[in-house]
Amino acid sequence: MTQVLFYGCLFITFSPILAFFFMVIAKNSQLVILTIGGSFFWLVSILIAAIWWYIIPPMREQWWFIISFSVLFQEIFRYIFFRLYSYGFNDRPSLNQIKETQHQMALDSMRKRKQAQQKQQQQQQQNNEIESINNEIINDNNANNNNYNDDDKEITEEEKEKRKIEKQKQREIEINARLETLSARPNHTLSSAAIGVGSGVAYGFIMFGSILWESTGPGTLFSPACPSVNLFMLSSIITLFMTLLHVVYNVLAFQGYRSKKYHLVAFVIITHFITTYLTLLNLPTKTTSCVGSILPIGVITVFSIGFCIFSLLKSDSITKIH
């Protein structure tokens, strides 16, 4: 029974976010890197919150104190990651710009080669005319032979130039094929969602991993706030909501920072504080209840997902690449 409970809680918690990862994010290497970066920044924010909790001993038992600062540090690092993302992606030239510059450089090199060839031909013609005037009477046969040799040299030079042009075209094709996978900027919405997936997965494994591992032991454990509810199942459902909220929060926050719609950022910060403080209702006190915790968090999660989709459709951010 404990193994069934372990795998059941595991799949309930991580199935939606891992399905999104393997079906959407894993197909793009840049999105995978952003996911790793999102988890790293979330871990750094929690590390700083833990240090802050440790250096103030009187506040170690005050959950409202550490929760407020942990949410604050998470939002600060979310904004830092947005600045880093905007610097790395928005300020970098797009694939079309790179192709245009390469095409312009190729045209400039072709023009320079043609100008150099024309100058060489003019110089050769002038030299030939001078030689023909000086040796017109004496070396008529030698002049004709020299003209044939010059024609042969021009033909060989033209063949070499054609080969160089063909090699250059092949190199351009290979470079463009690599740029499609390495230099193309991903969709901003998918990028922000990938970062949110990273922070959500990190949250799930750090906050729920130790609890989930205890479910493999003998027996089971019920929630102190709701004695009839399994603690592992309750924690898995709350973790599921929180992982989805991390994705939604990151998409909304990045959209708000990018388009300067700060009401989206305010929505993210306020709901993040509310959902985090609602988890305190699971503490074993006389006035707390798990229903008062899990039900509002579920409602906020559904509403946040709907609001996120509505804001993306309204701003047409789903189809925008640049």
Can you characterise this structure?
There is one protein chain. By secondary structure, the chain is mainly α. The chain is 80% helix and 0% strand. The chain is built from 9 helices and no strands. The protein has helices at 2-23, 29-54, 63-90, 95-134, 140-182, 188-214, 231-259, 262-278, 291-315. Helix 1 packs parallel to helix 7 (231-259), helix 2 runs antiparallel to helix 3 and helix 3 (63-90) packs antiparallel against helix 8. The longest helix is centred in the middle third of the chain and has 43 residues, at 140-182. The radius of gyration is 33 Å and the shape is elongated.
Percent range for β-strand residues: under 5%
Uncertain stretches: 147-155
Tell me the Rg in angstroms: 33 Å
In DSSP terms, counting alpha (H) and pi (I) runs of 4 or more, how many helices? 9
> What's the mean pLDDT score?
78
Order of helices and strands: HHHHHHHHH
Helix content: over 70%
Distance between the termini: 51 Å
Structural class: mainly alpha
Largest sheet: none
- In total, how many beta strands? 0
State the shape. elongated
